Amino acid sequence: MKHLFLRNETECANIPIDAILSLEVKDYFLVCHTACGRSFSCCKALIQIENLHLPYFVRINRSTIINIHKIQLVNFKTRVIEINELLSYQMAFRKINLVRKAIREFESNT
Fold it and tell me: What are the angstrom distances between the C-alpha of 6 and each of 15, 51, 79?
């Protein structure tokens, strides 16, 4: 299983890729939301994470990357993606086709 290693000034985290729900930028910090409900913040650029080419991860707007495996609901009309009851994101209009394609690929692999 692959892991994503993140660190900040006070702690380090080696997070399993399967446990990551989403990665988003908030106030110049990258926040990694995990399936266990814990979030980890660090000073890493989102483009660095995107360049790792993590499987089943898609950038849905300029500040968010989500795990396609963890999506519970996608509303293409309102462009809202719900991961769980606490995490929902607005999808950029230009990313709709990319998200649809990623979901189709995920469906065909399962």
Answer: 8, 15, 30
